[in-house]
Hints:
Layout: H1 8-28, H2 33-39, H3 46-53, H4 62-72
Helix pairs in contact: 2-3
Amino acid sequence: MESIEFLDNEFILLHRVVGKNVAKIRKMKKVTQLDLSLSIGYNSTSVIAKAEAGTEGRHFSVEQLYKIAKILNVPMSSFFEDIDTISEN
């Protein structure tokens, strides 16, 4: 099997796309960052806000995405829409 090189920037973009998708779906479902934070076990919005924005190296874990998908009643795969476009940039 051939080795593939990955750029560090690819992973940053990956996390940003996932974060933006979470934010888009959360807003469509009319769920606040605070409500989502409390539902997955946090006391403030900072984790959600930073992961959605992709700031301070924060991103969602698989466990968090699973919980968020259940809370928002969407398939977990919906957070990965447009992922294929990151390697094209």
